[in-house]
């Protein structure tokens, strides 16, 4: 199995209005470090998992709607909490759309919320 990881970060604002989340119930900002890992069992005809530039561009496009956004007002989070896990799923889904023509590429998104906590989401149905 081969993998390629590209990274970026995104600054968001949101609230998690449920007592389960303690002080994070109120509006607050977060800077999330984002890693997108693409994997495949065999390299493509160019001997790569994906072109690094293309992978970086895909991640940038996936993050673009989130940059400096208040996720409480973001249409894709309407009716659901914008937890780090839900945000990772959102990014993974956008990357899956970008790679619709390459179903043999696995996608895992890892968000680092702080130095002691990371969340990962692996897009189901891909290798």
Automatic annotation (TrEMBL):
Belongs to the PTPS family. QueD subfamily. InterPro entries: 6-PTP_synth/QueD, 6-PTP_synth/QueD_sf. It catalyses: 7,8-dihydroneopterin 3'-triphosphate + H2O = 6-carboxy-5,6,7,8-tetrahydropterin + triphosphate + acetaldehyde + 2 H(+). This is 6-carboxy-5,6,7,8-tetrahydropterin synthase. It comes from the Bacteria. Its EC number is 4.1.2.50. Keywords: Lyase, Metal-binding, Zinc. Coiled coil: none annotated. Pathway: Purine metabolism; 7-cyano-7-deazaguanine biosynthesis. It is an enzyme of class 4 (lyase). One of its GO terms (molecular function) is metal ion binding.
